[in-house]
Amino acid sequence: MFDFSDRVAIVTGAGGNLGQAVARRFYAARATLVLVERDAGKLRSSFPESADAPDRFLILHADLTDPASVSAMVGDAVARFGQIDIVANTVGGYRAGTAVHQTPLDTWEFMLNLNARTAFLVGQAVVPPMLERGYGKIIHVSARAGLAGTANHAAYTASKSAVIRLTESMAAELRHNGINVNCVLPGTIDTPQNRAEMPKADHSRWVSPESIADVILFLASDAARAINGAAIPVYGRS
């Protein structure tokens, strides 16, 4: 089991299925947690233990598509705990189903904002405090769909592909400063929402949020110190 007792980890999208799994894995590994979500109340309900452990938890509201909100979030984290060691950026979403020529512009912009813009802003904001300490682990969540364009998924695949390219660029820029930047590529995640949308699928083939969280914890650990700029497939059997 990993021991993050001397590390401060930011988990974005911490109220989602994957975000909660990642946060709970880090908590079990003794990390100090900064949990970020648009609805901070949801996080307090999901993590009731946070009320009795202010030395282990900081729950923050943030709009991760807004630069000022992201900057304030990072500033609050540093002000409380003095450092940021790890960022697990799990925020993101899915919208698809139309050909490019039928896709509304707002769908294209929504996907790029939710998946790519958030990764850009979060990564941009956490690098300065990491550079000051000469240490950092940034893990973004892309998707298998980001590896290639497919019919009726252009906005989604383009946004997730952008996360991979962003990861590679940041890794190349920061590799000599003690900062590792990687991303994971989940296949279909076994969530209640996906089961409801695809009730006839073989859910046993899907990858669980906990399995993805385990890979993220590995990438956040010093055991992964030689891995930089990677896009790690986490497909389960899907």
Question: In words, what does this structure look like?
Answer:
By secondary structure, the protein is an alpha/beta fold. Helix content is 43%, strand content 16%. A seven-stranded parallel sheet has the order 3-2-1-4-5-6-7, sandwiched between helices. Helix 1 crosses helix 7. The longest helix has 29 residues.
Strand content: 15-25%
Supply Rg: 17 Å
Query: CATH class, please?
Result: Alpha Beta
What would the average pLDDT be, to the nearest integer? 94
Number of helices: 7
Report the uncertain regions: none
Indicate the overall shape: globular
Keywords:
238 residues, alpha/beta, Rossmann fold, 7-stranded parallel β-sheet, 43% helix, globular
Compact overview of the structure:
This protein is α/β, with parallel strands linked by helices and 238 residues long. 43% of the residues lie in helices and 16% in strands.
Topology readout:
Elements: E1 8-12, H1 17-28, E2 32-37, H2 40-46, E3 57-61, H3 67-81, E4 86-89, H4 105-133, E5 136-141, H5 154-174, E6 179-186, H6 192-197, H7 209-220, E7 231-234
Parallel strand pairs: 1-2, 1-4, 2-3, 4-5, 5-6, 6-7
Helix pairs in contact: 1-7, 3-4, 4-5
